[in-house]
Amino acid sequence: MTSARRTVEVALRLAGVGAIVLALVLALRAPDTSRGDAPSTLSAAALYDSSARATVNELSATIARAALDSAPSGVHLTLTGIPSSSVRAALATVVHAGLRAAWTDSTNASGLAIAATAIADPFGGTLVRARANASVPLTIRDDASTLDSIASARNGVTVRGARLSGTAQAAVGSSRARVTIPRPPTLRRVLLLARPGWEAKFTTAALEERGWQVEGRLPVARRASVTLGGTAAASGAVTAPLDTARYAAAIVLDSGLVSAGVLSRFLRQGGGVILSGDALLGTSFGALRPATIVGVRALVPGALLTDAPRRGLAAWELRAAVRSVVLQAESHDRHDDSTVVAWRLGNGRVLASAYRDSWRWRMEGRDDGLDAHRAWWSALVGAVAFVPAVTEREQRPGNVVEQRLPGDAAPYADLRSRLGAPVAPPASMRSTPPAPSRRWLLYLVASLALLGEWALRRTRGAP
Amino acid sequence: MNASANEPFVFATVQYDSGDWDSAPMVPANVIDAIARYTEIPVRPQGVTVPLSSEVLFGYPLVFLTGHLPVRFSNKEADVLRQYLKRGGLLFVDDHNHDVDGAFNKTVREEIRRVAGALTPLPNTHELYRAFFVFENGPPTTSHEMNGWGDNLVHEHLDAVLFDGRIAVLFSNKDYSSEWSYHPDNKRFLSVDNTKFAVNLVVYALTR
To answer: Which residues touch A311 (CB under 8 Å, ≥6 apart)?
Structure first.
């Protein structure tokens, strides 16, 4: 009996010691996750921020602490928002210092970008274009208030703001793209070259009422012209150079009033030219025209009083040239009639408008036709107008530092350029839990075996 | 129908319900003759008559209104004229009586005030007087002013209502309706063509 107890005691002791030894061996053979090539995982919660300075300090301290504690060869960031430009710069610094950094994209803001363009219009205004992943809720705002909140479309969204201030922002969750709203451009005069008529009169009126300064030369008789604005009285075709120092755009409503050479020189300087009505006839502007006349478009009687008033205007049927862009078209009999076509020529732009009597839109259209006619002509001029370049210092005096922060307009692209493409999360961070360790079983076996051996020994009176 | 790049200018006379709107039937032909004679502006050989109560008026951005008798615009006429002027039309009114104390002058001024605002003197330096021919002293004097008819006054200036710096209503007490009321063929008997000012009016309307 006693020998049987002793046999059991020995067996239990061996089992306990064996379990401890096995646990020790397993522990020694297990990889060291705190050193070597395994990247440390940092909390990303502090990386996207509104107070860049505090977060940069926190980030630096976190990385320094991680380096001192475990000397990692790399870090892995899981970002639920795009870090601010300061934080992105700090991350780039860390990477350049030799620390390998990878990141996992949980931002839902890939492709987030924003652009703001000053509209060439005396009324001012800014065109804000933003994009992010399609179907992601996108909020666009300036420093004063929210402008719009909309699901991002495939080609982005566009918001026109009459008076925006400070910066324009596009936000997806906590990620933000920022751009400084440009100052209104300096707009120069518009030169009108036309024969006297209602189209010339009301084109001038529309632009002047919109705020453009219009000069013009309208031949009335063989040796007499009416001049508008400040140009010197003259007759015959314009042969003196047009200069972008004075004019933003020239509108030509009739042929024979200016030579193609004069317009070409103006275009090389960056000026804009609008060829409309009978200026599209003939061959004098052949090389300049972005579209050619192929017929007379049938107008729709009564359309001036509908939602599509321009269908009621006399117009040419245009064929757009190969490199041109159709800016406006009207659907008709299951096909689109190109009515406003433009292209770049030299440093400038040429626009062809098919309409021959747009003045009827204002005079014979609906009550809103007056404003619509003004805005339409202003938009045509704004589409081609020469706008002098604005230097950065002119853009926002006293706030140049903000303007110089890189990547704010496209922070996602900036992040990728600094840290590379996002990667899948590391195994330790994946949602599937790691296989449970069985070492506790060894400790349990060792404890129970040693406890049993001790109990058997004590109950038989042994020490 | 109207002046555009290819379409000729059409001289339009306003027909209103009250008064005698057709008191100067020879004026259109004479004005048309002057335009064709002095300018290269294409012009339709015949004028048209346009009802003031119809939106057809909007197709004629320059219209001529004259008469001797009291003028009272109906509500429809006033509404159409108000819209017409707001959109950029120009109304030229001539007092066929040449009489500041006459019924036409008094009533039509009241109607214009109701529709467009008060008439004010147009400076004789206005660009209207240099739009084609140069009239250093403002509107040319008519023979009807000189011969003592009507109010026996030589009116020094025209009156106008300006919208955004442009003439919306031009008002004359000088009786151009009589001055220009003859057959154009008879211009050859004049030492100075007295319809030249009409050319200025049309050129101004077509360019400003």
So the answer is: A299, A300, A303, A330, A332
